[in-house]
Structures are given as C-alpha cells and as structure tokens.
Amino acid sequence: MAFLSLLFMSSCFLTLSGLTFGDQSGKPVIVKEGDYAILPCSLGTNENIEFMRFEWKKEGTEEEVYIYDNGVGYSPALPGRVSHFRDDLKHGNASIRINNVQLEDKGNYTCNFPNRGKTFRIKLVVEPILKVRNVSGAAELYVTSHDQINGGVLLQCDVKNAHPKPTVEWQDSNNEIIPSEEPQVSKQGDRFYITLKATVKKSGRYRCVAKQEEINHQAQKEIYVYIYEKSDSATQGFPVWAAILIGVLVVVIVVGVVLKVKGYCLKKGRPPHRESFHL
User: Residue limits of the Ig-like domain (predicted)?
Assistant: First the structure.
C-alpha cells in the first residue's frame, strides 16, 4: 500500500514538474539551427481545449512566445514563426511548432493553463551550424587565379581580418579537398591574415572555404577556371574571327580561279579569227 501511494505521488510530481505529452522521459527537445522545433504540451486528459486558454513563455523573457485563447493564437515574441496544431486541440494537444529556430531560441519554456493552474516545462536545445555570420572577427575571403603554369592554373585565396584563427582549404565542385601549398599566416593585433595557394589542372568550379567553429562562422568564395586541353592546341591563341576571315578568303580565291579557268576554256573553244589578205 505504501508503495502504491509513493508511486502515485511520484506520478503527480512528474506531471506538475513539466513532463509533457509525447515525452514522458523529461528529455529536452534538440534541434539544429534553422530547423523547426515542436514543443509538446498537454493536460494529459484528452479533453477538448479548443475554447481553453493556454500560454507559452520562455524563462527569462517578458513577452509570451505564444498565446491561444478561444480559437485565436498569436505570438508576441516570435511573430510569424510559431503555430499550434489546430486539429489536435480537440484531443487536448497544446503543443506548438517554432519554425526557423535560431540560437537565441534555446532555453527553458513553460506551457501554462491559467484556468487550471497547471504549468508544464520543456527545455529547447539548439545545435549551431556553420554558416555566414555578421559578427566581429568573421573571416573575409578574396579569391584570384593566375596565369597557366605547366598545364595548370594557380588559385590563390586571401583570408583577412579573421579572429579566431580559421581553418582554410580549397575544394572542388564535389566538395573534395584538393592539395594546397603550406598556408602563409600573418597576424596584426588579434586578427589573422592567411594566404592559401593551390594548382589545378582541370577546368571546373573551385571554392575556398574558411571555418571558424568557435563563432560558428563559415565563409566561402567560388571561382571558375578553364584550362586548355591538348585538343585545344590547334586553336589555342587563334581568334575565331581570323579563322572565319581566312575561310572566306579561301572561298573567294577558289571561286575566282574557277571563273578564270572557265573563261579561258571558253575563249580557246571559239574558232580562230582569220584575216583576209589581198594580193
């Protein structure tokens, strides 16, 4: 009997402390930055809450993340990014969906039913991704290509004004890292300046990628190079317009020669002109 009482009290405690619909383990919701997150919440009674008020808040903030009241839902804190599951309200589902989750969305959330005096809690964890960020110390990239050398093209990537120090690499169109020279690194104050060179021998698109995982920043610049193949050697350095002009001249000369020969033959085929001599 004592065991059953303890089990009942534990169940009540878990319900009131925020273990929510769809997740009875208390584990946080974990998503990657830019994805969507579903924060679960339910009274657990499967009753219709279409005409009941519930509120979502993030701990440490003043504005409500989402408010649903008598058929109307809206988000003061995240307008346009939060919605509820309208068809599931009749089953007691007060869960919300947050679209395009950002790093600043992480934290502890509460789902509150003010008319019932019940509050549920759930933690949202947002895992950062590497992307272009407008933050201080974000690496700035500049890429150039140099004249063809020994059948290849020299690519140069200059990374400027970076802090912390980034990792820099050249990649091909298949996202494969290509061999590069030893990077040239210099430092001015706390900012890093890096030059990375690589020689490529195939035409295609190449990109220089700089990663700064400490600030979740990744920048890249792409360049297209064309390398003359052996089959191009006959026309290498020979303008197309010159080839066309030569072709036209050849045709004109051939036509002129043909006409001249034809005229000569016609002239030879006429009876010779005889002059009369009188004695």
Answer: 31-111, 128-224
Q: Is residue 250 part of a domain?
A: no
Q: Are 95 and 84 in contact (CB under 8 A)?
A: yes
Residues of the chain with pLDDT under 50: 1-25, 232-235, 272-279
Whole-number pLDDT of residue 106: 97
CATH of the domain at 83: 2.60.40.10
Does residue 146 share a domain with residue 202?
A: yes
* pLDDT tens-digit series, residues 102-157: 999 999 999 999 999 999 999 999 999 999 999 999 999 999 998 877 789 999 99
Backbone angles phi, psi at 196, to 5 degrees: -125, 125
> Is residue 239 included in any domain, yes or no?
no
Q: What phi and psi, each to the nearest 5 degrees, are found at residue 190?
A: -105, 10
